[in-house]
Specification:
Number of domains: 8
Number of helices: 2
Distance between the termini: 34 Å
CATH topology of the largest domain: Immunoglobulin-like
CATH class of the largest domain: Mainly Beta
Strand content: over 45%
Largest sheet: 5 strands, mixed
Mean pLDDT: 82
CATH superfamily of the largest domain: Immunoglobulins
């Protein structure tokens, strides 16, 4: 590995300064901002809504939402604010928020239609023949004269409220389409009438984009894919011929991003290209030959406590190659390999954290290191863990050190008060491990602590003294119930062996939660974990050992209530002769092999956002496989997104990645199995942007509304790259 350049070292030092609150320049520290969307209660975008700062250092600042309901309010002096979103026909929504210098945070508003003396008309405007939504269409309600009008959002939805009772004419129009009208639309007080309108494309108003593509030596390039994004004709494309010429026809007038892609060459995107009615626009571009793809960028992503962030996404956002990304492992490490030489900008993101970007130059065959430090996003709705720490007699213990030792963020430490109470605030939602340490008591770590947004998780803990210890006693048998002599029993450094009748007694065992191991030649060892040993107390603990020749397998599948596979569910197997765990694959399947044949096993399955399921008394047969099926239900208050990823012929795509890139939760992924199915579970209600991608295919995005305790369905059909 090459020595990091001074430029990279400066970037890392700058990130470290930011993580401890030192701003690199006074200008950055002066102002911040907010951004987000204003939608109605059905999830439809509200255009023309006013978002303003009602109180705070920059009170009076305001912005108006676009056709997709988005807004950005920048240049706000840091401090506590009150914000309000409003539009005629809707009830105003207000939020309080602290604007942090140098950051732009996300705040979304949901407005409820305000029509106490009238009714409303809502629906979608769709393209005739395909039923694709038409954004930016004007919808007018008339009754002799125009009463109200609005513009459809990105999902083609509209809503017009506050209409007096009566009969109306509804008309939808957009450049590039033939207008359509509906008469006799009835509106009643306190009710909503739903009307869907389909518009036919007007051929005479369609636009054309054409041009030539050359390389950096002026030679014509064939096989370049030219594709439209972020407009009414998103997905239309053409490929350059042997003369480097391309032409995309029948484009609905709109503003587009145009991407030029060919393997081995730089990718160019023309941003915000306006194509008007009946226009023929010519754009020639030049792509740079990237040369051999032999360079690598690698590094780690840590939080501001210096702990690794697993599951963070590091993506190339600018450079000769864009869009490539990698997800960090449990050590926070990422690797982006097989890159051509050039200047790259990488951006690291993680759920609940502010993103961070860095730029550097790569030479052919070079490996460079870029590390990131991410700070917790102050806009994230965090949770907390609270409770009381007591001794075995229930008396609260003061000055116990309580430390977060694993989770989305770790390193936070506090002490219990005189009553044994403690509280750790500001935790990003996720699963944590918390360790309790006190002089004269056995240290204890509690894993699997779930933290949720805007909720306090209660965790009460009992610690045991490290005095004279306790006693373990019991009997050890084989799988047939025959008592075994000569079995070695060990726990916390203490050891004994069973007598002729299989009995044992182990004294002076350190108090606390200990692991007890039973072993004998010719038999499979058994370890019973987290046995509670209390001072002066005798604890009964029996065990059963299995002959090493007698093993079997345990297989199963995990589905949700709709029959969809649940990927990455944690499957824990405990029993008389083993304690182990695994996770389900993309098809929801799991397998334990080489398990000692015996009965009395317990299998527990858990997954994010879903209720835990347990099956007890499971029997593992010798030289055979036992099969189990689990059905998990979604936790109350959360939803999911599920569906399939296929090519244009409807053939499922295996190993496609479906990623949440925007919404209340980001960077959560699901990888398709042989059926092309994916499942994203445990999602808080809200609006999400989801991207499906696969090797050799062009990624596709979709806006999806997730509702509490419901599964939203979305199927993706990917176009192969040429």
């Amino acid at each position: 590995m090459h020595r990091p350049s001074c430029h990279f070292v400066r970037l890392i030092l700058a990130a470290l300064l930011l993580s401890v609150g030192l701003a690199p320049s006074p200008a950055l520290a002066q102002t911040g901002g907010i951004t987000g969307f204003v939608r109605d209660t059905t999830g439809g975008a509200i255009s023309g809504a006013l978002v303003r700062a009602t109180t705070g250092p920059s009170a009076g600042s305001q912005a108006v939402t676009g056709i997709d309901g988005s807004y950005t309010l920048s240049g706000l002096n840091a401090g506590q604010y009150g914000f309000a979103a409003s539009k005629d026909g809707f009830t105003q929504a207000s939020r309080t928020f602290t604007v942090v210098s140098g950051t732009t945070s996300r705040i979304d508003f949901s407005l409820r239609a305000d029509s106490p003396t009238g009714g409303a008309i809502q629906g979608q405007v769709l393209r005739q023949g395909t039923n694709d939504p038409i954004p930016g269409a004007t919808v007018r309600v008339t009754s002799g004269v125009t009463v109200q009008s609005t513009t459809t959002g990105t999902n083609g939805a509209y809503r017009i409220a506050g209409l007096p009772e009566g009969s109306y004419r509804l008309e939808a129009s957009r450049v590039g389409f033939t207008s359509q009208a509906r008469s006799g639309v009835t509106v009643r007080v306190g009710s909503t009438t739903t009307v869907t309108i389909s518009l036919r494309v007007r051929g005479s108003e369609l636009a054309t984009l054409q041009g030539r593509v050359t390389n950096d030596r002026g030679q014509l390039l064939s096989g370049v894919r030219v594709e439209l994004f972020n407009g009414a004709s998103t997905g239309r494309f053409a490929t350059t011929d042997r003369r480097g010429f391309y032409r995309i026809q029948e484009i609905i007038p709109d503003t587009y991003d145009v991407q030029y892609f060919k393997s081995g060459f730089s990718t160019i995107v023309l941003r915000s290209l306006a194509l008007g009615a009946a226009q023929r626009v010519t754009r020639d571009v030049q792509l740079t030959n990237l040369g051999p793809a032999t360079a690598t960028i690698e590094g780690v992503v840590d939080d501001s406590f210096g702990q690794p962030l697993a599951g963070a996404r590091v993506q190339i956002t600018a450079g000769p190659v864009t869009g490539r990304s990698d997800i960090t492992d449990n050590t926070g490490a990422y690797h982006l390999r097989n890159l051509p030489a050039g200047r790259y900008t990488l951006t690291a993101t993680a759920s609940g954290f502010l993103s961070s970007s860095a730029t550097g130059d790569l030479a052919v065959g070079e490996t460079e290191r870029l590390d990131f430090i991410l700070s917790v996003d102050p806009a994230v709705q965090t949770g907390s863990v609270r409770g009381v720490v007591t001794n075995a007699g229930g008396v609260g213990l003061a000055d116990v050190q309580v430390q977060v030792t694993a989770g989305p963020t770790s390193g936070q430490t506090t002490l219990t008060d005189d009553d044994g109470d403690y509280s750790i605030e500001g935790l990003v939602p996720g699963t944590y491990a918390i360790t309790f340490t006190a002089s004269g008591f056995s240290q204890r770590t509690v894993s699997g602590v779930q933290v949720f947004s805007n909720q306090a998780t209660t965790l009460n803990v009992e610690l045991n003294t490290t005095g004279g210890g306790g006693t373990l006693t019991g009997t050890v048998t084989d799988a047939s119930g025959i008592r075994l002599s000569g079995v070695t029993v060990s726990a916390a450094g203490r050891t004994t062996t069973t007598a002729a009748d299989g009995s044992y007694t182990l004294t002076n065992v350190a108090t606390g939660f200990v692991d007890v191991t039973f072993s004998k030649a010719g038999f499979r060892s058994v370890t019973v974990r987290n046995v509670h040993v209390m001072e002066g107390v005798t604890t009964q603990l029996n065990a059963s050992l299995t002959n090493t020749a007698d093993t079997g397998s345990l297989a199963g599948i995990v589905r949700d209530v709709s029959g969809r596979a649940v990927q990455d569910a944690l499957v824990e197997l405990t029993g008389p002769s083993t304690n182990t765990s695994t996770r389900t694959n993309a098809d929801g399947r799991f397998l334990f092999s080489g398990i000692p044949a015996a009965g009395g096993y317990t299998v527990t399955v858990s997954a994010s956002g879903m209720e835990t399921s347990t099956q007890s008394g499971v029997v593992v047969p010798a030289n055979s496989t036992a099969n189990l099926t689990f059905t998990l239900r979604a936790q109350s208050g959360v939803g999911s997104i599920a569906g399939t990823v296929s090519n244009l012929s409807g053939i499922p795509i295996t190993r496609a990645t479906v990623t949440i890139i925007r919404g209340p939760v980001v960077n959560r992924q699901s990888i398709t199995g042989s059926t092309g199915r994916y499942n994203l579970t445990g999602l808080p209600p809200g609006r999400y942007t989801v991207e499906a991608g696969a090797v050799g295919y062009i990624p596709q995005r979709a806006e999806i509304e997730v509702r509490a305790s419901q599964a939203a369905a979305k199927n993706f059909f990917l176009v192969r790259r040429f």
